[in-house]
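thought: fold this chain, then report.
action: predict
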Amino acid sequence: MYLTRLKTAIETIKKLGKNLTMTHFGVICPTHFTGHLNPMLPLTQELKRRGHRVTFMGIVGYEAKVLAAGLEFLGYGKEEFPQGAMTEYLHHLSQLSGIPALRYIYIEC
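observation:
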């Protein structure tokens, strides 16, 4: 519904002959978990295709995937989460379950 209204608004502005200023979207995706990043990539690529500027902000673990999708990337936490840190974290977490897994997520990390 939102996209339909957006398309209508864009068409109206074009008919009126006014310039449409495109938006710079900042996308905060703090982890490179598949369920967080993968759904965001097609959405942001569509925004870019429509002329918007899109910049992902997050830890360096998924920078390559974002850049490969043709989007901008602004990394943070490079000292706290150096390249490969999330892979180690996920590997260790995959060995745990139940209370020990919760303890690792919320207390030890």
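thought: worth noting. The chain has a mean pLDDT of 82.
final: tokens above.
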